[in-house]
């Protein structure tokens, strides 16, 4: 049932595209997709105000990413008290799983994987390059390798160039919601579809259900992190972006999911600049491709021709419409619940909940203004 509604949404987006593309006889202006333009479509596309080169104020504490130091039981204990014993737990949730840290010791790069924020896409770009040129491989952090190079956690962190990605918290939450239930083989009975409204009040609900009722049983539950899967795909990202104080950034460069191409291109320039004077090969641009976004990339293929926007970025914005649909369906309560859950992330990204202008109650009002995809419309004029 859930599948069919997603499919219909997908079809309606594509058909809107095809209609508008075929309606335009050759030359621009091409109308942008007929997706509803309103408070919610703007909401899910707000991107981090902090991006590109940023000030790294200190290293990411080793116990947040080194598996030997990470406290495996803290989150489970927290969950046990809150969910099973139903105690009045006032401390914020600890991290459910260690941060995914990848390292390249030749280029002296560190990439912190922020789940559901284009991390697969970024890592794949390096992986592709890595196939032909071994020095370009980004490998999961290894303490042995670090020590073999005479480094400590902190000296490595301070001297390497640290990269991570950010994503709009509302889109990220909705994407995590889709992702978790989508991969459950069982979606009936106690594993039945959780309304989005319910999810927003507690994004850890799916992880709790998945573990309690084994909704993600066997096949899809692999590896030592399987129990944490549905938690870490929705949990706040700030733990893996900040120094020990929690207030300063532990990264040098932030890629915005909503502007992946633009930011990644700038990053490649920086990496290439840093490698000058060494024998390391130059990183090629234009290799980046969205993963799991094929259909949206296809749909925008012609849309952005000749316009100063990469089609992959346009695709990200178009695909975000399926997230807008969720908030439109449940209104400002969901918007506010998610903002509360991701408050620390939002503070780091310096973004605020866009003010409701009225009509954004349940079911959502539509203002019907022109939709602009990051300035495409203006450029096309
Ligand atoms: C891990 O966290 C728990 C709290 O759940 C705490 O009691 C325990 O002492 C911690 N272990 C270590 C090694 O820090
Ligand atoms: C939970 O604890 C906090 C602070 O300890 C208190 O203010 C609040 O009223 C408690 N809530 C419930 C439902 O007991
Ligand atoms: C996209 O553009 C190509 C040529 O650039 C054209 O052959 C194709 O028909 C176009 N597709 C759509 C859906 O308009
Ligand atoms: C879109 O904007 C243009 C110019 O800004 C205006 O002429 C047009 O009427 C608008 N369309 C809608 C549907 O508001």
From TrEMBL:
In the UniProt record, the signal sequence range is: 1-23
Keywords, A to Z, come to: Signal
The ranges of region (Disordered) come to: 355-381
Q: What's the name of the protein?
A: Sulfotransferase
Lineage per the UniProt record: Eukaryota, Viridiplantae, Chlorophyta, core chlorophytes, Chlorophyceae
């Amino acid at each position: 049932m859930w599948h069919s509604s997603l499919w219909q949404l997908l079809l309606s987006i594509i058909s809107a595209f095809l209609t508008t593309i075929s309606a335009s006889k050759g030359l621009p202006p091409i109308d942008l997709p007929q997706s509803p333009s309103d408070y919610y479509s703007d909401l899910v596309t707000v991107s981090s105000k902090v991006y590109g080169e940023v000030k790294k104020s200190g290293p990411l504490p080793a116990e947040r990413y080194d598996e030997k130091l990470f406290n495996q039981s803290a989150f489970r204990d927290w969950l046990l008290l809150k969910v099973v014993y139903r105690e009045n737990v006032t401390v914020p949730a600890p991290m459910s799983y260690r941060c995914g840290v990848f390292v390249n010791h030749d280029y002296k790069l560190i990439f912190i994987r922020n789940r559901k924020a284009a991390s697969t896409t970024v890592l794949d770009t390096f992986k592709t390059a890595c196939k032909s040129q071994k020095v370009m491989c980004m490998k999961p952090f290894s303490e042995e390798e670090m020590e073999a190079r005479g480094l400590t956690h902190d000296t490595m962190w301070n001297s390497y160039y640290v990269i991570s990605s950010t994503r709009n918290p509302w889109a990220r939450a909705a994407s995590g919601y889709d992702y978790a239930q989508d991969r459950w083989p069982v979606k009936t009975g106690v594993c039945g579809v959780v309304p989005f409204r319910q999810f927003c009040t507690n994004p850890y609900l799916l992880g709790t259900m998945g573990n309690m009722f084994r909704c993600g049983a066997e096949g899809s539950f692999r590896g030592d992190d399987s129990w944490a899967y549905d938690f870490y795909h929705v949990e706040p990202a700030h733990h893996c972006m900040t120094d020990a104080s929690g207030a300063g950034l532990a990264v040098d460069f932030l890629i915005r999911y909503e502007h992946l191409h633009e930011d990644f291109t700038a990053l490649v320039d920086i990496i290439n600049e840093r490698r000058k004077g060494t024998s390391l090969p130059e990183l090629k641009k234009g290799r980046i491709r969205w993963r799991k976004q094929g259909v949206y990339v296809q749909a925008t293929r012609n849309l952005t021709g000749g316009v100063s926007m990469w089609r992959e970025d346009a695709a990200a914005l178009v695909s975000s419409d399926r997230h807008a649909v969720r908030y439109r369906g449940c209104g400002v309560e969901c918007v506010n619940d998610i903002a509360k859950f991701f408050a620390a992330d939002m503070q780091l990204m310096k973004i605020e909940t866009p003010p409701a202008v009225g009509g954004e109650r349940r079911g959502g009002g539509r203002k019907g203004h022109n939709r602009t995809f990051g300035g495409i419309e203006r450029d096309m004029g």
